[in-house]
Each structure stands twice: as structure tokens, then as C-alpha cells.
Amino acid sequence: MMLALRNLLQDRLRLALSIAGMSLAIMLILFLLGLRRGLMLAAVAYLDHAPGVVVMLPEGSRNTATGSGRFLPAETVQAATSIPGVERVTPILLISAMPVFHGRKEAIRLAGYEVARGGGPWRLTRGQPPAADNEVVLDEALARRHGFRTGDAVALGGREVIVSGLSRGTSSWTGAYVFARKPLVESLLLAPGAANLALVTPAPGVPAGEMAVRLQALPGTNVMLKREVMANDQRVLAGITGQVILLMVAAASITGGLVVGLMISTATLERQREYSILKAIGARSRTLYRVVVWQAMIAAGLGVVVGAGLAFAVGWVVMTLWPQFPVVIEPAALVMAAGTGMVMAIAGAVLPARTAERLAPAEVLRR
């Protein structure tokens, strides 16, 4: 290992460039994985914080992304409250919309809820929940982009509403959440009493699976466990962004391997004479193989450390400037990046190591 380190330090500029190339690859891998994880968590943030463990969806729906144009039968929602074992039913009217604020279109998810039953904002940073049918809670990042404050009047669907509060953690790539009392959303849709989502809380001691089976008997609904709906929502988003992000991660991995391979190959060629002397005095081929591999792993290890720091820094900048793109770098991603870095190092060192292993001391020393 010490010989490998000395070889690397012989040309510190090349080592620095190699670490820089590897760290950029690791940074990109971690940032993309963190962005993917952040988007997945944001896609299910509402359901994750909403009450209930069983979800009633309109018949034919399996996620919240496709339910905007379908409604649960009013009698079905009412009947659910009478099912044995039901503690609470929380009807929600959740729709996607594209209002215009200051001449700019904004994608939002408008959540209409009944204050007494829950389903509203879970983290207020300013103001209070809607106290009247003409009040709304805006996502904090959305409000910041347009300079909205509590007490301001905002045009929404041809209606003037008052901003009663601001919420945090309610913004995502698919749209910021806007919370209102259910009658306001019903009036915007001209659909009195409508709901496209009902969150069911079982009584203590009643298993969620058993409750879902009981609710299946109700007409016009598809009953699922909340975790299943959340998984389906994430699957929809993964189908849109997942493949692109994973392709970029693969490209970054290949780039990192090529950088390390080029650096180690050049260093090996430049030190053929030293390696030949080592072989001439009895060093085994596997010893030279280990030296080359150690060089690659040291460079890659330094690149992983620097790259991880850069990934956290870039993630913080992105979330500060564009809160709708959350970056969540988890320990599992760090382990994966470190493993990827080592794999890139070993893959990049294979050819240089074989070159060192095949050196013929007599031929090299004659040059």
C-alpha cells in the first residue's frame, strides 16, 4: 500500500485530476440518487401525513394521480361510516390544477378537506389553517416565488381567496399543494359533496387488512391499503423519471471508471522500469498487481469522500433555490456510492494491472 501511495504522489497534479474526475462522478451519482429519493418521498408526502391506513378510491383507480376526474359515490362514503370497526372516515377532494399567478402557470394539487376530520396541512410556518370557505393555505415555496403573504388575496379558479397560512414540505416536481376547505373545492368543480378519496381509520384492534375486506363490499369503490396506494403513486413517478435518472447514474459510473483507468494506465506505463526492477529482484506478479489495484483504490477512496461532500453541498443549493426538487441522500446511497467507487477503481485498474504483471524485465531494462 505504501508503494502504491508513493507512486501516486510522484505526480500530484495527475492525482488531483484523477480525484477530481472521480469525485465529480460520485457527486453526480449521489445527487441523482438523492433527487430520485426526494421526488419519491414528495410524491407520497400527502398520504404519508394524512390520517387513516385504508384508502377508498373511485372504481378503476389505483393511485391518486388518476383520480381527479372520478368521484366516489356520496352514498358509499356515507355508508363507510356505518361499517363495523370504522372509527373515522376522512373524505378528500384532491385535484390537479394549473392556475396562473402573475402571468405564470403553476402546477398545483388542490386538497379540499373537512377540518373536523383531518387531511389538511401538517406543517404550518405562517398563519393558520383555513377558517372559512374562502381561505387557503399555500405551499411556502410557491408563495415565495410570487411574493404571497398571509392575508393576501389570490385568484384561484375565477374566485378570490385569502391566504390564511403557509405550509412547508408540501412542494414537489409534480406540483405544490394548496389546502382549502372542501366546500371551496367543490364549488370550483361545480360538484357539491364530491370526494375522490376517502381515508379510513379503523377502530383500535381492527387490522387494516380486515377493514379493507369489509369496505370492499361497498359499490363504486376500489379499496386498498394506504401503503399500496403510496407505492402505486411512486411507481407512476418512477415510470416518468426513473429510467432517465438510472441511465445518468450508469453514465457517471462508467465515466469514473474510465478516469481512474486512464490515470493508472499512464502511471503504470511511466513506471515500467521500476516495476521491472522489482520483478528482477524477485517480486511476484501478484505483488505488482496489488500495487496497481491499491493505487486505483486510494484515488477512488479520496474521490468518494470529496464527491460525497460535494453532493451534499449541491443538494443544499438545489433545495434552497428550487424547493420543488428535494434531494434526500440516505446512508444506503452513501454505501452504494462508495461501493460503486471501489468497483470503478478495480475495473479501471484491470488493464494496467495486467500490463504490470506481463512485464519482461530483460526487455524493459534493455530500452
- Beta strand count: 12
The amount of beta strand, in percent, is 15-25%
Number of domains: 2
- Rounded Rg: 29 Å
Find the structural class using helix and strand composition: alpha+beta
Order of helices and strands: HHHEHEEEEEEHEEEHEHEHHHHH
> Treating each run of at least 4 consecutive H or I residues as one helix, how many helices?
12
- Terminal CA distance reads 28 Å
Question: Would you tell me the overall average pLDDT?
Answer: 84
Portion in helices: 40-55%
What ranges have pLDDT less than 50 throughout 5 or more consecutive residues? Answer: none
Biggest beta sheet attributes: 10 strands, mixed
The shape, in one word, is elongated
Q: Tags for this entry?
A:
single chain, 367 residues, alpha+beta, 2 domains, 10-stranded mixed beta sheet, 54% helix
